[in-house]
Amino acid sequence: MCIHMGLDKKPMLHDYWTRHPVLHSSFAPKVMVRERFLSILAFLHINDNDSFVPHGQPDYDPIQKIRPFVDYLNAKFKEVYQPQREVCIDEAMIPFKGH
C-alpha cells in the first residue's frame, strides 16, 4: 500500500480512504480499513530508534523507519534487473536517494 501511495499522492494520509469524489481512491479501502493501516504504520520500525534524527535536523531521512529495507530492496533490484536496452533515468524524478 505504501508503494501505491507513493504513486498516487494525496494531500493527507486519510484521503486514501475518503469518499469525496475528487480524492476518492478504490485501492486502499479494498486492501484494509484505515484504522488497521494506521496501527501497522505506527509500529512499523525496521530501523533502530536510537539513531532517529528529528525532522528539520541535518541527516534527517524521511523514510528512516524503513531505510534498511529500502536499501536492501534497491541492492537486490540492481542484482537482478538487466536492462535489454539503453535506460535513461531523470534524477529529478527520484524522490528518495539511497545513502
Structure description:
With 99 residues, the chain is mostly helical. Helices cover 35% and strands 0% of the residues. The chain has four helices and no strands. The chain starts with a helix and ends in a 19-residue tail after the last helix. The mean pLDDT is 84.
- Round the Cα radius of gyration to an integer and report it: 16 Å
Distance between the termini: 24 Å
Spans of at least 5 consecutive residues with low confidence = none
Overall mean confidence score, pLDDT: 84
Helical proportion, percent range: 25-40%
Strand content: under 5%
Q: What letter string, H or E per element, gives the SSE order?
A: HHHH
Protein structure class? mainly alpha
Question: If helices are DSSP runs of H or I spanning 4 or more residues, what is the number of helices?
Answer: 4
- Shape category: globular
* Structure summary, number of beta strands: 0
* Largest sheet geometry: none
Protein name: PiggyBac transposable element-derived protein
Q: What brief labels describe this structure?
A:
99 residues, mainly alpha, 4 helices, 35% helix, PGBD, PiggyBac transposable element-derived protein
Give the structure's gist in a few sentences.
Residues 2-99 form the PiggyBac transposable element-derived protein domain. The protein is mainly alpha-helical and 99 residues long.
